[in-house]
Specification:
Layout (H helix, E strand, L loop, with lengths): L5 E4 L10 E8 L4 E5 L8 E6 L4 E7 L9 E6 L2 E6 L8 E9 L3 E13 L7 E8 L4 E6 L8 E9 L2 E7 L7 E7 L2 E6 L8 E8 L4 E12 L16 H29 L14 H16 L22 E2 L2 E4 L2 E4 L6 E2 L7
Parallel strand pairs: 1-9, 2-9, 10-17
Antiparallel strand pairs: 1-5, 2-13, 3-7, 4-5, 4-8, 6-7, 8-9, 11-15, 12-13, 12-16, 14-15, 16-17, 18-21, 19-20
Length: 348
């Protein structure tokens, strides 16, 4: 026969570091073992189920309350373990592990929210949240109006059907940022997300004797930078791939250089090309040469010549001369390689 006692639960501290909370799921007819890691070693540890905010029914204890057929408690390796067998749906509820003082008050050390259900009877919205390594990641929980007066909490799944509470709207958290926008929105922010934060989270609501899981969050963690795929060792050197970049670049520079040269050539003034002696007309060349030499060497003079028999019937004589010398009134004409013209006027 189950031995039960009604005891007044003392007011506990608001720090989650002193009272741990865990959510455990189990099926009808199964056996579950729960640990009380913060139970004192030298006191009478009791396991009780809450039925109101002031009373908790003791089921078993390490000293004063013996184990029964379905529930047992024992110390092992410095911790206290409670085992419940042949579970039924009415076993669902909130349990406390703690120690009693004078048999009147229970000081809680660990709280277990136990949910017993048939297959598929517990359903909740499932949402995937993506976080980036070493950055802040927020998990948002939304509650219906019926949970307005409840304590909101977020727990992280640590093993199959076991979820450890990490943040609470009532007790807060040391390592997480808690934001309660209103009575139906509850957000928990992980300041620097790391690999250990990925996994499954449960959004829950609880009062003194009842709790409910309303949402399930799956947190995925990604690296801050995208890594380039590694090149297989069997592949050849990346030299040809580099040429695919260098060749178009070199061609572009060559085209640019040609454009600059063409612009410079167009801006340069044209030079007059003097034809060579082989291409010039012989007559034109001789005349131009003579005119050039005559311009430099021609001397004009007036010469009076005495009439003679040789000059009868002639009024003018044209001769090729270079030097004209007067000797005894006569003119001597000397031939030369250079041709010079002189105008001679004869008077009779």
């Amino acid at each position: 026969m189950l031995f039960a006692a009604l005891l007044l639960i003392s007011v506990i501290s608001n720090s989650l570091a002193q009272v741990s909370k865990m959510v455990i799921r189990a099926g009808v007819g199964e056996t579950v073992t729960m640990e009380c890691p913060h139970a004192p070693k030298s006191r009478n540890i009791v396991w009780c189920k809450a039925y109101s905010s002031e009373h908790c029914t003791i089921i078993v204890g390490t000293v004063t309350h013996k184990a029964n057929r379905r529930t047992s408690i024992k110390r092992q390796n410095g911790s206290v373990f409670v085992t419940m067998r042949e579970l039924v749906e009415s076993d669902s509820g909130i349990y406390s592990c703690g120690y009693s003082v004078n048999g009147q008050t229970i000081h809680e050390s660990d709280i277990v929210m136990l949910k017993i259900s048939t297959a598929g009877s517990w359903t909740a919205d499932n949402t995937t949240v993506k976080g980036v390594m070493q950055t802040a990641t927020s998990l948002h929980c939304h509650y219906e109006q019926q949970f307005k007066s409840y304590e909101n909490f977020l727990c992280k799944v640590t093993s199959v059907n076991r979820c450890s509470v990490i943040a609470s709207s009532k007790y807060g958290s040391r390592n997480l940022t808690i934001i309660v926008n209103n009575s139906t929105d509850f957000a928990v922010t992980i300041k620097q997300t790391n690999e250990g934060d990925k996994g499954e989270y449960w959004c829950g609501a609880t009062d003194t004797v009842y709790f409910e899981i309303v949402q399930i969050k799956i947190l995925e963690i990604f690296e801050a930078t995208i890594k380039r795929p590694e090149v297989s060792k069997d592949r050849k050197s990346s030299g040809p791939q580099i040429w695919y970049i260098l060749v178009p670049l070199l061609l572009g520079l060559l085209v640019l250089l040609l454009i600059v040269l063409l612009i410079k050539i167009r801006r340069r003034p044209l030079k007059t090309v003097t034809p060579t002696n082989n291409n010039r007309n012989p007559e034109t060349s001789t005349t131009a040469k003579f005119e050039k030499e005559a311009e430099d060497t021609v001397t004009y003079s007036t010469i009076t010549i005495q009439p003679s028999t040789q000059t009868e019937g002639s009024s003018a004589i044209y001769s090729n001369t270079k030097d004209l010398k007067a000797q005894n009134g006569d003119v001597e004409i000397h031939s030369s390689e250079s041709v010079e013209y002189s105008a001679l006027l004869f008077r009779s």
